[in-house]
């Protein structure tokens, strides 16, 4: 028992160790995995306040950025807040190296976005509409194309001294697990960090992540590897660290409606009080209303996230039902106060 307590303390100390990637210093080993619809700038800033070292935007189409060079449509997805976020990466998806080159130039020439810490390339998205274009996890079946894409981004990003990372899966399916060799190929063309979601494309988000794949990736490359898949708390991080020896830990679904998960992991004394729960949701909604300049739209866009904030609460299903009907912040807060 005593040994276990010591080991948890050791992993907590490790989690607090900064990670250096060239000139970039990531303040600790915890990351928020990119989550379309959740990991926008306000939520990421809240996660940063609760200690997460590295966050990433949701996937944004490289070609979409090329068609929208002034970023009128895409800025909302690319937005970063360098004053309130720790280290933040922008994630691009696509299949054409020329799109990635141009999109990276547009981002790194933008007055605010050029403050981004890192560019991340999505090679894990399993959605049909993405993989049928040869993007996302389909790139794991085309290592040559994947290398050309990383080269294209690295060539531009190097000029701005920004590292490039790649997020991959275990492979396309159970018969083609290639993450270790694939990660090495990404390192060979200049990737400086790899995140491995230890599921195959065919698993989508179901079944258990196979952390052994992360272990093999760690052995194959000399750049830092972040493990991802089924992490929820300090115990799961402890087990992943023991099993894989990875350099960092990316949490996805367990952070939805739960930005405190990072504080709970990093600080054994952290305890969330109901008042703080209310204040954070209030702030999240208020900032979203300000961002979108429309109360009803903001609340409607946030319904899934609001529902996630209710996870584990008494009367959650009744409150979720009420939230589906509400259109103003004051109605929402009344519901939350009644829980
Ligand atoms: C709703 C949702 C949206 C996601 N969006 C992205 C994304 O934009 N980019 C990406 O690389 N991965 C995305 N992912 C995958 C997560 O980053 C992560 O790899 C996956 O959820 C496994 O981690 P977890 O078990 O901690 O959730 C998404 C996952 C979910 C559930």
Blueprint of the fold:
Blueprint: H1 2-15, E1 19-21, E2 24-26, E3 30-32, H2 41-49, E4 54-61, H3 62-66, H4 75-78, E5 87-93, H5 97-108, E6 118-123, H6 128-131, H7 143-159, E7 164-171, H8 179-188, E8 193-200, H9 211-220, E9 225-228, H10 234-244, E10 248-251, H11 261-266, H12 274-292, H13 295-301, H14 303-309, H15 316-325, H16 329-337
Parallel strand pairs: 3-10, 4-5, 5-6, 6-7, 7-8, 8-9, 9-10
Antiparallel strand pairs: 1-2
Helix pairs in contact: 1-10, 5-7, 8-9, 12-13, 12-16
What does this structure look like?
The protein is an alpha/beta fold and 339 residues long. It has 2 domains: 2-266, TIM Barrel (Alpha-Beta Barrel); 274-337, Non-ribosomal Peptide Synthetase Peptidyl Carrier Protein, Chain A. The chain has 16 helices and 10 strands. The chain has an 8-stranded parallel beta sheet with strand order 3-10-9-8-7-6-5-4. The longest helix is centred in the last third of the chain and has 19 residues, at 274-292. The two termini are 37 Å apart. The mean pLDDT is 96.
The residue-averaged pLDDT reads 96
Principal-axes geometry comes out as globular
Oligomer: single chain
Termini separation comes to 37 Å
Tag the structure with descriptive keywords.
339 residues; alpha/beta; TIM Barrel; Non-ribosomal Peptide Synthetase Peptidyl Carrier Protein, Chain A; 2 domains; eight-stranded parallel beta sheet; binds flavin mononucleotide
Short description:
With 339 residues, the chain is α/β, with parallel strands linked by helices. The protein has helices spanning 2-15, 41-49, 62-66, 75-78, 97-108, 128-131, 143-159, 179-188, 211-220, 234-244, 261-266, 274-292, 295-301, 303-309, 316-325, 329-337; strands at residues 19-21, 24-26, 30-32, 54-61, 87-93, 118-123, 164-171, 193-200, 225-228, 248-251.
């Amino acid at each position: 028992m005593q040994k276990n307590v010591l080991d948890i303390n050791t992993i907590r100390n490790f989690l607090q160790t900064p990670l250096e990637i060239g000139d970039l210093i990531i303040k600790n080993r915890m990351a928020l995995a990119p989550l379309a619809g959740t990991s926008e700038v306000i939520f990421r800033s809240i996660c940063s306040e609760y200690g997460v070292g590295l966050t990433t935007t949701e996937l944004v189409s490289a070609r979409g950025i090329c068609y929208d060079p002034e970023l009128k449509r895409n800025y909302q997805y690319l937005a970063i807040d360098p004053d309130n976020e720790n280290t933040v990466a922008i994630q691009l998806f696509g299949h054409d190296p020329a799109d990635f080159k141009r999109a990276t130039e547009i981002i790194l020439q933008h007055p605010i976005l050029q403050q981004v810490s890192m560019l991340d390339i999505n090679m894990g998205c399993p959605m049909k509409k993405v993989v049928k274009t040869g993007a996302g996890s389909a790139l794991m079946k085309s290592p040559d194309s994947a290398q050309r894409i990383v080269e294209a981004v690295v060539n531009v990003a190097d000029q701005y001294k920004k590292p490039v990372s790649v997020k991959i899966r275990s492979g396309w399916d159970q018969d083609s697990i290639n993450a270790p060799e694939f990660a090495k190929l990404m390192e060979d063309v200049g990737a400086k960090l790899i995140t491995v979601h230890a599921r195959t494309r065919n698993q989508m988000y179901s079944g258990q992540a196979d952390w052994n794949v992360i272990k093999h990736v760690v052995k194959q490359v000399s750049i830092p590897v972040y493990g991802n898949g089924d992490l929820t708390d300090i115990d799961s991080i402890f087990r992943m660290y023991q099993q894989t020896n990875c350099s960092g830990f990316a949490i996805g679904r367990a952070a939805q409606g739960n930005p405190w998960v990072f504080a709970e992991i990093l600080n054994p004394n952290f305890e969330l009080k109901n008042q703080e729960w209310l204040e954070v949701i209030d702030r999240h909604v208020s900032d979203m209303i300000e961002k979108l300049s429309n109360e009803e739209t903001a609340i409607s866009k946030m319904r899934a996230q609001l529902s996630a904030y209710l996870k584990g609460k008494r009367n959650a299903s009744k409150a979720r039902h009420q939230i589906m009907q509400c259109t103003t912040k004051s109605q929402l807060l009344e519901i939350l106060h009644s829980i």
